[in-house]
Design a protein that fits this description.
397 residues; five-stranded mixed beta sheet; alpha/beta; 16 helices
């Protein structure tokens, strides 16, 4: 992601703010209407959903796109089945992408059974994310594939979404979270936004709706801005070592009390970590392309954002010989010796894939220039993982 381009587009967004505001303010009205009315346990589920979505406007009905109409038609015939689908969709204890796909598949089966003459039930990723964002506006962001694709190209985002893939949702969610950080730093924009909200608007304290509004404006209303950044001059230096050649410092246990803002630190560490992963993903693809391995470059995947955490690595890449590379990325703005943490899954994966596992220590990372240094550690991480910090505990009855 080109931060300089993002900042330039933020300036354009502020300049065009009043014009865009009148076209898009309905989104804040739609969320307020839903938040004040939706009740999944309502006796008349049809009436409740109809009222809750009455201000959704272009989010769920536009031109030849009618998800709200088909939703209501199915609720009218099978209210309890659709109610159960929403219960599962809104259960945040389960994987997001699974919930989305289950809702889409289950609704398709129901609609085809009840209305076999209707070819399209319109409950696609866009519509389902609308339902999620209306319910949890501080967690999710309104989504359109076309909008995501156009915006990604304009800001030189490393990922290029592919139509129909549910993995686009995770990539878009991550991009929005990174953009929100830049938006929250612009006090002039936040003031413009605050001044336009009246009693009919939902006040999004996390600026998720504002972030999506910015993305939509850039994608649909703004001309592309040329970048002067040289993509071939991003790596300052690269070193590669075997994990068996490294020695990790072992700290003495200390019971000294301290007051640290862990919540804010974790938020910032995640942001830098996400930027580092995207940067490595782009570098891996570029390296393969420059060496004439375009077929392998197309196979590189940012699995941590496509599928979620827990696989034990962030990026699936390939060597020039075609062998897979399981890459875990640890990023810091500081030195390579700054403390970082390895999860149990990462450690176990490094042991299983010991000949193809790499930990990329990205350090001295500069998000403005997208420059950094890399220490590539190959092999199992057992030699550098000495001190467990947390233990999982499941109590038995």
């Amino acid at each position: 992601m080109n931060i300089k381009l993002v900042k330039s587009y933020i300036e354009k967004y502020k300049w065009e703010f009043e014009t865009i505001h009148y076209q898009e303010i309905y989104k804040w009205h739609a969320i307020k209407q839903f938040q004040e009315n939706f009740d999944i346990d309502s006796v008349n589920f049809y009436s409740n959903v109809e009222t809750s979505l009455s201000k959704s406007g272009n989010l769920l009905d536009s031109r030849l796109y009618f998800p709200k109409q088909l939703l209501l038609e199915n609720i009218e015939v099978s209210p309890e089945q659709v109610r159960d689908m929403f219960r599962l969709l809104y259960d945040e204890d389960f994987d997001l992408l699974e919930r989305i796909e289950n809702f889409r598949n289950d609704f398709g089966i129901l609609s085809n059974k009840v209305f076999p003459e209707k070819i399209n039930h319109y409950q696609d990723h866009r519509a389902i994310i609308v339902y999620l964002t209306l319910m949890y506006p501080e967690r999710y962001f309104f989504y359109k594939f076309g909008m995501f694709k156009k915006f990604a190209e304009k800001i030189e985002y490393a990922h290029r979404p592919v139509a129909g893939r549910v993995e686009n949702i995770g990539l878009f969610q991550n991009l929005c979270e990174l953009l929100r950080f830049e938006i929250e730093k612009d006090q002039e924009l936040l003031t413009l936004h605050e001044n336009r909200l009246d009693e009919n608007c939902y006040r999004d304290k996390n600026y998720n709706i504002l972030t999506q509004d910015f993305i939509y404006a850039v994608a649909e209303h703004f001309d592309s801005i040329k970048s002067n950044q040289d993509p071939l001059a991003e790596i300052i230096s690269v070193d590669e070592v075997s994990s068996t050649d490294l020695i990790a410092k072992v700290d003495e246990i200390s019971f000294r009390p301290s007051i640290i803002n862990h919540i804010q630190n974790n938020i910032e560490n995640k942001r830098i970590g996400d930027l580092g992963e995207i940067w490595v993903y782009k570098q891996e693809k570029m390296f393969l392309e420059l060496n004439g391995k375009n077929n392998l470059s197309k196979k590189v995947k940012h699995v941590a954002k496509n599928k979620g955490d827990g696989l034990g690595y962030d990026i699936l890449s390939y060597g020039l010989n075609g062998n897979p590379k399981y890459i875990e990325v640890k990023t810091t703005k500081g030195s390579k010796n700054s403390t970082f943490y390895v999860t149990r899954n990462e450690l176990e994966k490094s042991i299983i894939e010991k000949d193809n596992y790499f930990l990329y220590r990205v350090y001295e990372y500069n998000e403005e220039s997208e420059k950094a240094k890399i220490l590539k550690i190959k092999g199992p991480l057992t030699n550098i993982c000495h001190t467990p910090v947390n233990y999982k505990v499941d109590l038995k009855d």
